[in-house]
Automatic annotation (TrEMBL):
Keywords: NAD, Oxidoreductase. The keyword Metal-binding does not apply. The keyword Oxidoreductase applies. InterPro entries: FAD-bd, FAD/NAD-bd_sf, PheA/TfdB_FAD_monoxygenase. Pfam families: FAD_binding_3. GO terms for molecular function: FAD binding; oxidoreductase activity. This is 2-polyprenyl-6-methoxyphenol hydroxylase-like FAD-dependent oxidoreductase. Gene3D superfamilies: 3.30.9.20, FAD/NAD(P)-binding domain (3.50.50.60). The lineage of its organism: Bacteria, Bacillati, Actinomycetota, Actinomycetes, Pseudonocardiales. Residues 126-329 form the FAD-binding domain. It comes from the Bacteria.
Length: 506
């Protein structure tokens, strides 16, 4: 189709990128972006662009990608627990300052002929446009106007975004135990000699530290909406002083939040279509809102280019993008749950912990991680098996002996008679899962069973991990032999002691 007038609500990465791609695809169209903020005002710190995202942007718009990569900072990744540290290769990841990202996208949009209008608030209904693209973020007023079947799920953990005025040498994941509980930072460098520090904790620790009170205080009348939680920042910069190298934490509308996962039954209504966080969100530990929004823009413009009318284009866009988005949301859901329960695992050697981290959502196999980071994985396997690995990696893992409670098992697939514990739930840290952990404690040892599908197997590995860590009971997980890679990763990650493989088809 050839749209005459297109209005884009929201001047974030997704909206700006969609506007540029539309103008390149339809030079005769009038494309306008409406952003309620000022062009030089933004919040946030750095944005990460992974290798897969870069490949997608390269295919769609190599000029924009070239400027983003030039402005960014590449880095590897480390995990630090106390005085233990492991480093893994990940230099395809590029960190870009959010301010620079937006400046580049604004410049390229205007270069293509897009009109940018800042400083005024608009609704979809008041705009004279054939198509309206709502890229107005996680709190989208367009989406909340109704018609999209919105569902929002709020996470249990708390987090805040802050920054520091120096560039870390690598991304770093580091937990710190305090008198209140455990805080963990995910920090990474980005352009301009700065770093993002994202800090998470559980609700009990947050309340013990008094941060529920500081959060409430910021919500009182007379407090500017852009104020940061300075009390939290000053405390956190003390406990993360080693990672900060003496630098202070910088706030920018920095407040404790709970992550909201947005899902919509429909991404369009009439002449309005949702894009990016307005349509869906994925937890920041694995799903980048910037990545998903810019890839949405590519998919939407491709659909508009190929379809005869807006309704057909919107349906095609949603049909093409929804599977990838939902897969990312499921990976992000598992990653979010893993991070919200992170403190329970920090007794593992850091090399085994990095294996647990990489395999937490089920999208990186043990073999794949071993190919990219042989030193870290090799050390983890020696810690697990007592000797250097050889031959087929998964078979080697399954063949290692185990000593537990005075009993010796010749390998990890020899499972004694144990109480069977059937698990068929979505959240391994729910109240229902708590009851299963209690049963495992009473039994003294369990074989965790359930449906023979991969998603269910990954969940029962998490339940088995809880039983193993919280009760010390011998745990075994039953799963189809076709999922042996997942079972091997679970063994090395400390999620289970033993596994039993069946002939069922996964």
């Amino acid at each position: 189709m050839q749209p005459r007038r297109v209005a884009v609500l929201g001047g974030g990465p997704g909206g700006l990128y969609a506007a540029r791609l539309l103008k390149l695809a339809f030079p005769a169209s009038d494309i306008r972006v409406y952003e309620q903020g000022d062009p030089d005002t933004t919040f946030g710190f750095g944005v990460g662009l992974a290798a897969g995202t870069q490949r997608n942007l390269e295919r769609a718009d190599p000029d924009t990608l070239r400027d983003l990569v030039t402005a960014g900072a590449r880095h590897d990744m480390t995990m630090q627990v106390g005085d233990q540290l492991v480093r893994v290769r990940n230099d395809h990841l590029v960190g870009v300052a959010r301010t620079e990202l937006l400046a580049i996208l604004q410049r390229h949009a205007e270069k293509a002929g897009v009109q940018l209008e800042f400083g005024t608030r608009h609704t979809a209904g008041e705009l004279d446009a054939e198509l309206v693209i709502a890229a107005d973020g996680v709190s989208s007023a367009t989406r909340e106007g109704g018609g999209f079947g919105t569902r929002i799920e709020t996470g249990a953990g708390l987090y805040l975004w802050c920054g520091a005025g120096f560039a870390l040498p690598d991304a770093v994941f580091a937990p710190v135990r305090t008198e209140f509980g455990t805080f963990v930072t995910h920090a990474y460098p980005y352009s301009g000699g700065r770093s993002t520090f994202l800090i998470e904790t559980d609700e009990r620790t947050w309340r013990r530290a008094g941060f529920d009170a500081t959060t409430t205080a910021l919500e009182q009348p007379g407090i500017p909406s852009g104020a940061s939680d300075e009390i939290s920042l000053r405390y956190l910069e003390k406990i993360f002083s080693e990672q900060l190298h003496g630098h202070p934490l910088i706030g920018n509308r920095t407040r404790w939040q709970r992550f909201r996962t947005v899902r919509c039954d429909r991404w369009s209504a009439g002449n309005v279509v949702l894009l990016g966080d307005a349509a869906h969100t994925a937890h920041f530990s694995i799903g980048s809102g910037t990545k998903l929004a810019m890839e949405d823009a590519i998919g939407l413009v491709d659909a508009l280019r190929e379809a005869p009318d807006a309704a057909t284009a919107f349906a095609r866009y949603e049909r093409s993008r929804r599977p990838a988005v939902e897969r990312m949301q499921e990976l992000a859901r598992r990653s979010q749950l893993w991070w919200e329960s992170f403190p329970s695992r920090i007794g593992l050697p850091v090399e085994r912990l990095i294996v647990a981290y990489m395999s937490r959502a089920g999208n990186v196999s043990l073999d794949r991680f071993a190919r990219t980071s042989p030193d870290a994985v090799g050390t983890a396997l020696r810690q697990y098996g007592g000797q250097p690995p050889e031959g087929d990696l998964v078979e080697w893992v399954l063949d290692r002996p185990l000593t537990h409670g005075g009993r010796v098992f010749p390998n990890r697939v020899t499972v004694p008679e144990l109480e069977r514990l059937h698990v068929d739930l979505r959240d391994p840290w729910s109240a229902e899962a708590d009851a299963l952990v209690g049963r495992g404690r009473a039994a003294g040892g369990v074989l965790v069973t359930g449906p023979p599908v991969r998603e269910a197997v990954l969940t029962r590995l998490d339940v088995a991990e809880r039983i193993r860590l919280e009760t010390g009971a011998l745990t075994a997980v039953e799963a189809p032999a076709g999922l042996r890679d997942d079972l091997a990763a679970g063994l090395v990650s400390g999620r289970t002691d033993l596994v039993r493989m069946t002939e069922e088809v996964a």
